[in-house]
Specification:
The chain is an alpha+beta fold and 675 residues long. The protein is 15% helix and 35% strand. Strands 6, 7, 8, 9, 12, 13, 15, 16, 20 and 21 form a ten-stranded antiparallel β-sheet that branches. It is globular.
Length: 675
């Protein structure tokens, strides 16, 4: 029999004695272009799936299933009811890295029959694209309204062959704010997702999840042999998830490509989420902002009250003047509300989200901003005191809406595993409790036409399609680490992010620091990049909102470089990863939404790189003025980081461009259509 045939015919099942091991399946499905094949089997009480890409086995038979409190681990005894379908549609994002998204997939749903009541019939849906796949469970045997506790997720991803991995240890107290390390994948202990691998077989893999709603975040546990298994962030009592039947899990996803760029250009995460629940999101506009933020990290002002308080009316108006002069949409103001004095992390329950410090006149500020055409960007730091925030959430959003504030940055600065809940428990930052909370904030905000930029967040899983007011997140080491030191982000960090963290969704990295050294002489205590890198990040690190994070005076001191920030948009028609080697360099190009120009950004690690880049992404037969911002010949992130050269030339799609990047350097281009 071939692989698609039943190993044991269905009539023989009735001859099996109790406890006898037998096999059923496989049932197989291929992606639309027959690039990927996935097969499901039941054998010896275990349900498994395996995956091939062409002639290469990507995943060996890997476990499926979950275990519930009050019953033993289920033995699966049959595989039934396989149904298959296909779909090829295109949908439009209201904002995004790509306006039109093609959803071309095949689908197979199978029913696993188990020997426990809650696992009696488990539907598993597999959705295959040519660049990867996702699958999720639907527990229809759980009676309607019955509460159940998930105690184990048996899902596994057993890779075949040797891989390198980019990862960091999960469950760290600083959540997802760690540097990536590159190791043999067999050294993975417990890794956050997206988890990206590069194989000796020429394939790139990334493991993640989509549509994470009312379920704990999934990490991946390694066994030292290249096999990975799901590890869900638990409740304080050890339960993984509290669910009410029947229920469906998030999608577990695997991206598969022949290049790092294939991972970055995949839209599987978005396609596995439901369409928008917000009927009209036109009130959110992508854009750029400045703010009272970086000066605090430089200790030039404070979040707390006193003579150095940054969020005072005069200072905010100063930033609004700057924003209006140069066309920025908004001004972020942190530290405006009471509760920042003293140890605000330990005393987050003292924050008020409607009471301002006396020197912050929100009436005067918002009226001034309205005259200038500049919006106030709100800020709700919680210190991880989620209960306090939820108790004020409706009032906080209504307060902002009253003043015309349509964008709010939230924060949860507290060690993971110590977030207090209403029952006195201590929660992980991305367990089911916090997953529920983050979505609740977005839902309440949406009612008031407010978008959310979440810092210290639950990771993105494409949920921005369903709730497009979830505009951006942090969820990695951002620019603030380059102010703190101890140490700052090394150059390779930004060449890793597009193929790890950014596979999850937009990141509010807050680029654009021009004063690279900011008074520091020690390399690891200041920004480890060149000025050209800071420009390129506006293209390389996608977000629909981008901050010009430095101080106004530093931008006005470098009008040559500042022009690129003024020109570059934040909403795109299409995005393409042109060249990349994870941890070494990346070159990306994006076309503005509804526009004809193009923008290119490239960054490198601590080594200099010169790349030849064909310009065949430009429209054929058209001429463009390439406005180039590049490292000067003597630029070096260690010794001469602000040396920048600007240049212009006329190019067409038949030309190539030499991209020369200094150590820690970058390269940014605006291709302006001429005719």
């Amino acid at each position: 029999m071939n692989r698609r045939s039943y190993l044991f015919l269905a009539p023989l099942a009735g001859l099996m004695l109790p406890g006898t091991a037998f096999a059923a399946g496989p049932e197989c499905v291929q992606s639309p272009g027959k690039v990927i094949e996935l097969c499901v089997s039941v054998d010896g009480g275990n349900a498994t799936y395996e995956v091939r890409r062409g002639a290469v086995q990507v995943l060996a038979p890997s476990a499926l299933g979950m275990t519930f409190a009050g019953e033993p681990q289920a033995r699966y005894t049959a595989l039934k009811g396989a149904t298959r379908s296909a779909s090829d549609t295109t949908w439009e994002q209201p904002w995004g890295e790509q306006r039109l998204v093609r959803d071309n997939h095949t689908e197979m749903t199978v029913t696993l029959e188990g020997d426990t009541p809650l696992n009696k019939a488990v539907d598993v849906t597999f959705r295959l694209f040519d660049d990867g796949f996702g699958f999720r469970y639907s527990f229809q045997s759980v009676p309607k309204g019955q509460d159940v506790d998930v105690m184990d997720d048996r899902t596994a991803f057993d890779t075949v062959g040797a891989y390198q991995a980019w990862w960091y240890e999960g469950l760290g107290q600083e959540r997802d704010e760690y540097l990536y390390t590159q190791t043999d994948a067999r050294r993975i202990t417990l890794a956050e997702t997206p988890l990206t691998l590069k194989g000796e077989n020429g394939l790139y893999l990334s493991f993640h999840e989509a549509a994470l709603v009312d379920f704990p975040s999934m990490l991946l546990e390694g066994d030292g042999a290249g096999n990975l298994s799901a590890w869900l962030m638990p409740w304080p009592d050890g339960v993984l998830a509290h669910k009410t039947g029947p229920f469906t899990t998030p999608w577990r996803t695997v991206l598969i490509g022949e290049s790092a760029g294939a991972l970055a250009d995949s839209r599987i995460e978005l396609n596995l989420n439901e369409p928008s629940k917000i009927k009209d999101i036109s009130w959110f506009k992508p854009g750029k902002y400045v703010g009272i933020w970086w000066e605090m990290h430089l200790n030039k002002s404070t979040w707390g009250s006193g003579p150095a308080h940054g969020a005072n009316t005069a200072n905010v108006k100063h930033y609004m003047d700057f924003a209006a002069k140069y066309g920025f949409d908004g001004v972020l103001v942190e530290g405006w509300n009471t509760g920042w004095d003293g140890d605000w992390i330990a005393n987050g329950d003292k924050f008020s989200f409607t009471e301002a410090y006396p020197d912050f006149d929100i009436d005067a500020i918002t009226a001034y901003g309205k005259e200038k055409g500049v919006n106030l960007v709100g800020h709700n730091e919680t210190g991880g005191a989620v209960v306090n925030y939820e108790d004020q959430l409706e009032d906080a959003m209504a307060f902002y809406a009253r003043y015309g504030v349509s964008q709010v940055k939230t924060g949860y600065v507290r060690h993971s595993g110590t977030i207090p809940d209403r029952d006195g428990g201590k929660q992980w930052f991305a367990g089911q409790y916090m997953v529920r909370h983050n979505l609740h904030v977005a839902e309440v905000a949406a009612k008031h036409h407010i978008s959310i930029d979440a810092h210290e967040p639950v990771k993105d899983t494409g949920l921005r399609r369903t709730w497009p007011n979830m505009i951006s997140r942090e969820g990695a080491r951002g620019q603030e680490f380059n102010a703190w030191g101890n140490p700052t982000n090394p150059p390779e960090h930004v060449s890793i992010l597009p193929f790890t963290r950014l596979l999850a969704g937009p990141m509010d990295y807050t680029p654009g620091i021009f004063d690279i050294e900011h008074g520091k002489t020690e390399l690891t205590r200041r920004v480890q990049s060149t000025l050209a890198t800071q420009l390129a990040l506006y293209v390389v690190v996608y977000s629909p909102i981008q901050m010009a994070a430095d101080l106004p005076e530093n931008y006005e001191a470098r009008p040559d470089a500042f022009q690129f920030i003024l020109d570059v948009p934040t909403d795109w028609e299409v995005s393409k990863t042109l060249q990349a080697a994870i941890g070494d360099y990346v070159v990306m190009a994006r076309q503005p939404r509804g526009g004809q120009d193009w923008y290119l950004g490239a960054v490198t690690d601590e080594e200099a790189h010169t790349l030849s880049q064909p310009l065949d992404f430009l429209a054929p037969g058209k001429r463009y003025e390439a406005q180039i911002y590049k490292d000067a010949p003597d630029a070096d992130y260690r010794t001469n980081p602000t040396a920048l050269v600007t240049d212009t030339r006329v190019v067409t799609s038949k030309d190539s461009l030499d991209i020369a990047m200094a150590p820690g350097g970058g390269f940014a281009v605006r291709f302006k259509l001429l005719d």
